[in-house]
Design the sequence.
């Protein structure tokens, strides 16, 4: 009986390892999320270069559905072997929001320019892509005088 339990436990552990490995993938690990604005820009360009829709979706803010926009971005600029030539990061609305003007050269000889909006939450930077399906709830303004 004891031998059967040990064997069953061993089988359970063996079957769980692929699932655990997938969960610990560094790309899905929040600890691997960009810690700086530049890391977010680099990850964005790397995802475009590798045509990695899932990587773009992981760069979106938590709760956003970025699947359609990520697909569109890959279709427009994926696989161009972009080499960043300059990044100008500006903080116009406080320390947790930034815009990055990105210029790059591409293997097709054409230039690339994009303005990326970035946001920081819990110390991790994200790229403003996708839509939050829950949406922001905001009451409309009253037109009555106080």
Sequence:
């Amino acid at each position: 009986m004891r031998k059967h339990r040990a064997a069953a436990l061993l089988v359970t552990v063996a079957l769980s390892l692929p699932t655990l490995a997938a969960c610990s993938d560094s790309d899905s690990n929040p600890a691997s999320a960009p810690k700086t604005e530049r890391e977010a820009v680099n990850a964005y360009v790397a995802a475009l270069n590798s045509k990695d829709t899932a990587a773009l979706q992981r760069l979106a803010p938590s709760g956003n559905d970025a699947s359609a926009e990520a697909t569109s971005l890959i279709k427009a600029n994926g696989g161009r072997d972009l080499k960043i030539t300059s990044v100008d990061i500006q903080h116009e609305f406080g320390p947790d929001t930034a815009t990055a003007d990105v210029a790059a050269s591409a293997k097709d000889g054409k230039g690339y320019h994009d303005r990326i909006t970035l946001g920081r939450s819990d110390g991790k930077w994200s790229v403003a892509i996708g839509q939050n399906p829950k949406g922001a709830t905001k009451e409309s303004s009253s037109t009555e005088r106080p």
In short: The chain is about 35% helix and 20% strand. Helices lie at 2-23, 37-49, 53-59, 67-77. The chain has a mean pLDDT of 80. The radius of gyration is 21 Å.
